[in-house]
Amino acid sequence: MTLRETPDPSENGTGFSGARAMRRLLWDLLRREKWTMVALCIGLVLAELGLRLFWPNLAGLVYAPDMTGGHKIVLTEKAYRIPDGTETAEPPQILALGDSTTFGTGVGAEDTWPLQLNTHLAAPVVVRNAGVEGGEPRQMLRGLDTLWSDPVPPPVIVLMVTANMVSFTEFRKDTAVGDPAARARALRAQGPEPARSVKTRLAHVVQSSALWKAVSLNVEFGKYGLGLLGHRVSLDAPLSPLLAYGWRQPDLSPAFGPRMWAEFESALLDLKTRTRLLGSCLIIGYLPPRFEIGDTRFDNLKFVPKARLTRDAEEELARMAAAFDLPFVSVGAALRQGRQDHGPLSKPYYIPGDYTHLDADGHSLAAQSLAQVIAPVLARPASCHHQGRP
């Protein structure tokens, strides 16, 4: 008897024969269903092309530390967002402050409302986009003190306020003020992009697919419609934009909303005081979430229960602007007028599946609306006072 009396299962047994049988089965299946597979592939390609044709904003919404919506992020040393290759040392005549809606999450730098302002102004001026994702007034005040007033303060400062900014101000009131240039330094310190692995490239292709985005978004909307997802605010991290609209929730104290707005009002007053000391004119704009600009289901695909909203955030901010003698611009008014002129499918104004961030058309409307107030201030700086809604 040899040392190998027991048969090896990988030889002449279930190992190799099982693998061969499985491969044969798959091959036979492919041969029998090859035309079905071909038809399926053609159908997927046609669906992808159709979505890219009729819903072009859907494709390429890829996000990464150095990319937003498939667009490369380029930040200067002063944390200005600019198109690649356009850096200049000229100080701004108009400085745009705000959160991710000013920064331009999901769109290219050239499509953000700050860089579209010159399209709607009679004479070209130097505009800088100093939007910071997740920004709030204390962070902007720090930026004015450390970055954006050197070598000279900007004559006009435009602050775009969102409901997110109001809730962020309350949430961060007891934390250290964030450095608005931190991300700029991190991006500029990055070395050459390393070669991507096959797995990473494949993931990028899938994430860039309009069909993939359409399926994933509709699954998300379906979950909201079926009640599997909701809008309940976490008491541990109250960051929902609904809070600025007086969101009613049984375990949420009725005092939370007034306290949150009072905190934001105090921060806004500090910012106004600083800009006056700089000799700058501060203009306030308000950008509402998408479910506030239209009453169709397409403007509320996440089924926000608007009956549970008890406060008009836009009216609240307009009141503050009047009390502080600041020009106020309702970007929501332009968006609502645009909704009357165009349907939510042809002109959504917000990037797909997003209630907060504008697409290129939305940024254009915002720029047009703001330019109506900015133009007379540039012509006559003494006209910097509360002007009501345009």
Question: How is the secondary structure organized here?
Answer:
Blueprint: H1 14-32, H2 34-54, E1 67-68, E2 71-72, E3 94-98, H3 100-103, H4 113-120, E4 127-129, H5 137-146, E5 156-161, H6 163-171, H7 182-189, H8 198-207, H9 210-226, H10 256-278, E6 281-286, H11 313-323, E7 328-330, H12 331-341, H13 360-379
Parallel strand pairs: 3-4, 3-5, 5-6, 6-7
Antiparallel strand pairs: 1-2
Jot down its keywords.
390 residues, alpha/beta, five-stranded parallel sheet, 13 helices, 7 strands, 7% strand, globular, disordered N terminus
Protein model, in words:
The protein has 390 residues and is α/β, with parallel strands linked by helices. The protein is built from 13 helices and 7 strands. The strands form 2 sheets. It has a 5-stranded parallel beta sheet, with helices on both faces. A two-stranded antiparallel ribbon has the order 1-2. Helix 11 links the parallel strand 6 and strand 7. The chain is globular, with a radius of gyration of 26 Å. It starts with 13 loop residues before the first helix and ends in an 11-residue tail after the last helix. The relative contact order is 0.12. The N terminus is likely disordered.
